Amino acid sequence: MKTFDFIAIGGGSAGFNAARVAAALGKRVAIVDGAKTLGGLCILRGCMPSKTLLYSAERLHQAQQGRAFGLKIPRAAADIAALHARKIRIIGDFAAHRAGQLTAGRFDLYRQPARFLDAHTLELGDGTRLRGGRFLIATGSKVSVPPLPGLSDTAFWTSDDVLDLDFVPESVIVLGGGIVACELSQFLNRIGARVVLIQRSTHILRDHSPEASAVLQQAFRDEGIELLTGTRIRRIARHGRGIAVDFECNGRTLTRRARFLFNALGREPNTADLGLGAAGVTTSNAGRVVVNRWQQSSQKHIYAAGDVCGPHDIVHLAIAQGELAARHAFGVRRIKPVDYSLLLNVVFTEPQLATIGVPEQDLQAQGVRYLSASYPFNDHGKSILMEANYGYVKVLAEPVRGRILGAEIVGIDAGELIHCFSGPLAMRATVLDLLRAPWYHPTLAEIITYPLESIAEQVKPRDGR
């Protein structure tokens, strides 16, 4: 039986980066990954394939709107075979790079599934046993199948299937209103499918503000997506060559039919087969590994990072959690827990939705005093000439000095613009600090100065400055 100082279970973003840090500290490290292809969820079935396809669909949509820009573009359509081939090529490059990192010899790599036999022993799929001083659980997440009437008995797509399409479906019903549902519904609609999106909550993207969700809902409907919110599924069943969904909406019973069904109702931690009970690792009712601020589980030598523990399923947080776990495991001094007050989130719909810092609803729930100001894109020069009129920029700040607490951007390139706040927020900068910086005209980023100026006029510093 081989013994290691540190074993990462999962070779995705969290596991690889934790192993990299542990190896750099001079420890004997192993990565155990039972996936058929190395790379992790982000590279293979998440961020990179989805954003590759979404970007192509954005360019297609822009070409189809050529008349608005004074352009004659007779016909623009998706070449789905070429689009699919481009995605495979790009993702193949990313995956090959990660595979090279995993096999470069800095740590031992085992291409097998694993489960705990006890708190210090793993058994791999081929019977090999490994003993570890410290572990990181970083096995990611998998598609969940909620107990909706008829769903488990009906053929449906997952996000994996949509990302691997090599044809344009005639019609799709999408169940769910989260990030994956919204991003891929718009993609399907733009490549030529008829899309019906059915969401249980009263608005899509329920973890975001109602104002932001309202902008996205209007954009979706303007593009031709049939969006139904505030629903309750009564029955899902096969109907001829397709499927039918019966549901309640606004006091009425409705039915929608389509050729295909896309289950986008969320993901769950991929922990069921790890034998966590044998290791004495506690999980929540949702299956997440319960961790403290240092990423330690109920067994202090077993850490967790990424989707398996949350609280947010975001790649840069998974990396930060994995690196923190490795450093804490081996006593690195002067480290700090992950700072979730700097939370950065982007939804890659069009318009995009991006947030950073403490959400406004959290400030309200905590009774924190703050100032708020916003400015719409449909009154901003650069976005107007770009025909990008959806959305707004909102800034939240502390009322005495004007320290920035958070921001929300719904609009064109929001995912890029939100980074104007990343450094300032981490440095605890004020709106006055940002207004000392130059902002070029005419640019999209210039719009940020308007809510900053509005808040600056309201700030009441105690020292009179």
Layout of secondary structure:
Blueprint: E1 2-9, H1 13-24, E2 29-32, H2 40-45, H3 47-64, H4 80-102, E3 108-110, E4 114-118, E5 121-124, E6 129-137, E7 141-143, H5 159-163, E8 171-175, H6 179-191, E9 194-198, H7 210-223, E10 226-228, E11 231-239, E12 242-249, E13 252-258, E14 260-263, E15 267-269, H8 276-279, E16 302-304, H9 315-329, E17 344-347, E18 352-357, H10 360-365, E19 371-376, H11 381-385, E20 392-397, E21 404-411, H12 414-417, H13 422-426, H14 431-435, H15 449-456
Helix pairs in contact: 1-9, 3-4, 3-6
CATH class of the largest domain: Alpha Beta
Distance between the termini: 68 Å
Helix-strand category: alpha/beta
Largest sheet: 7 strands, mixed
What would you give as the CATH superfamily of the largest domain? FAD/NAD(P)-binding domain
Overall number of structural domains = 3
Description:
- A hairpin with a 4-residue loop joins β5 and β6.
- It is built from 15 helices and 21 strands.
- By secondary structure, it is of the alpha/beta class.
- The protein is globular and about 70 Å long.
- α1 packs parallel to α9, α3 runs antiparallel to α4 (80-102) and α3 (47-64) crosses α6.
- Strands 1, 2, 3, 4, 5, 6 and 16 form a seven-stranded mixed sheet that branches. A five-stranded antiparallel sheet has the order 17-18-21-20-19, sandwiched between helices.
